[in-house]
Write a structure and sequence with these properties.
The structure is a single chain. This protein is an alpha+beta fold. The chain has two domains: 4-141 and 266-362, no CATH class; 154-245, no CATH class. The chain has 13 helices and six strands. The protein has helices at 4-40, 49-65, 68-85, 88-94, 99-139, 142-147, 237-244, 255-264, 270-280, 282-297, 300-303, 306-332, 338-362; strands spanning 154-159, 164-173, 178-187, 193-204, 208-218, 223-232. It is elongated, with a radius of gyration of 26 Å. The two termini are 22 Å apart.
Length: 363
């Protein structure tokens, strides 16, 4: 049985390498996004470099979240390779420590990282990108705000007894209760365009939208300007949420309730449930990455085929990632149950890794 001291040594070594890889990827993401932001704002000299960098800094965590599995894979490969090259695993094997025993600390550490990423990191990353959206809307405004936020345009349709309207917004925030870069086309009872309204911002107030910096023109060619005006609506907050929300922008703790709300509105809740179960399964998915790394990292010294083995590990991780995306897409479209779509890749990867390790160790 592996001692507590040796187990802590393996786990801490893995955790340090994992942290270093995530910080390196975070720096790379921030740098690339910052350069892209600079390219887009060259026309506006009144925007400070610090504010642009802050936007990139706040946007980076949500992109880094997608890199956790690969960070875990590479960290486990590097950890096991270094331990092997320094003959530490050879000594551990000679002392009677099996492969399962020295992989246990790494697996526990990976699972704890997954729990942290799901329960704490994900909500903080969502808050950060929402704050980045607010800053983008404030400092860029209009079309520039739309260019600097990676969100698709939002379309909302509302209908009353006598009129109907289509609302388009470049940016949606706070569950659709705040819209930026707004365009509204209002139709009369006969279905003809009656009014076009452009506004910098629309804020949902329950029974109406409060429009800010409004430019309005009618079908008769009459144009008017308003600092603010009310635009009636019969939409509920749940119906707006169902129309504009994206599972990627809802934090872990709110995903199940959001799925219920969009289901009541008549929208497919599958993407929200798949996202919820995928985050729940993340600790197990990271453990599967450790096992895949072990299948290509434990026999370097014995055979000297490190280059081919590392390439095999990278390809295995890539195939698993593609398979995960494919299966979750099936779950999001109700082709298979969301819980099965979210958990299947992790379970299959763990069984695959255990099978290869059993074959390598026991023949």
């Amino acid at each position: 049985m592996i001692s507590q001291t040796l187990g802590m040594y393996f786990a801490l070594r893995f955790a340090k390498i994992m942290l270093g890889m995530l910080l390196a990827m975070l720096f790379l993401i921030i740098t690339v996004d910052f350069i892209e932001q600079l390219r887009k704002v060259t026309e506006k000299s009144d925007i400070s470099i610090g504010m642009i960098y802050l936007v990139s800094l706040l946007r980076a965590p949500i992109f880094l979240e997608k890199a956790f599995p690969f960070g875990c894979l590479f960290a486990a490969m590097i950890t096991l390779t270094q331990l092997n090259q320094k003959m530490e695993l050879v000594v551990a094997r000679a002392a009677g420590v099996s492969v399962w025993q020295f992989l246990l600390p790494l697996s526990i550490c990976a699972a704890l990282i997954g729990v942290f990423a799901t329960t704490i990191y994900n909500p903080l990353a969502i808050k950060a990108i929402n704050h980045a959206d607010e800053i983008s809307a404030e400092i860029f405004g209009g079309k520039k705000a739309r260019q600097n936020v990676n969100r698709k345009n939002v379309w909302i349709r509302q209908k009353t007894d006598s009129k109907s309207a289509v609302i388009n917004a470049g940016i949606s925030r706070n569950g659709g209760k705040i819209l930026d870069d707004v365009k509204i086309i209002e139709f009369n009872s006969k279905g003809f365009v009656a009014t076009r309204i452009d506004a910098r911002q629309a804020i949902y107030k329950g029974k109406y939208w409060e429009l800010i910096d409004v430019s309005q023109s009618t079908d008769e060619g009459i144009a008017e300007q308003f600092d603010s005006r009310k635009f009636p609506t019969n939409l509920s907050s749940d119906s707006i949420l169902g129309a504009v929300s994206d599972p990627e922008t809802v934090n872990f703790w709110e995903l199940k309730s959001t799925a219920e709300k969009v289901k009541n509105f008549g929208v497919n809740p599958g993407p929200y449930l798949v996202r919820y179960h995928s985050l729940t399964a993340l600790p197990l998915f990271l453990v599967s990455m450790v096992l895949i790394a072990a299948t290509v990292s434990l026999r370097f010294v014995r055979f000297g085929q490190s280059g081919r083995m590392i390439l095999g590990g990278i390809l295995s991780g890539f195939v698993l990632y593609v398979m995960t995306k494919l299966v979750t897409s099936l779950g999001s479209n109700d082709i298979m149950p969301p819980i099965a779509a979210a958990w299947a890749p992790s379970v299959v990867a763990i069984l695959f890794g255990m099978s290869i390790l059993l074959h390598q160790e026991d023949g």
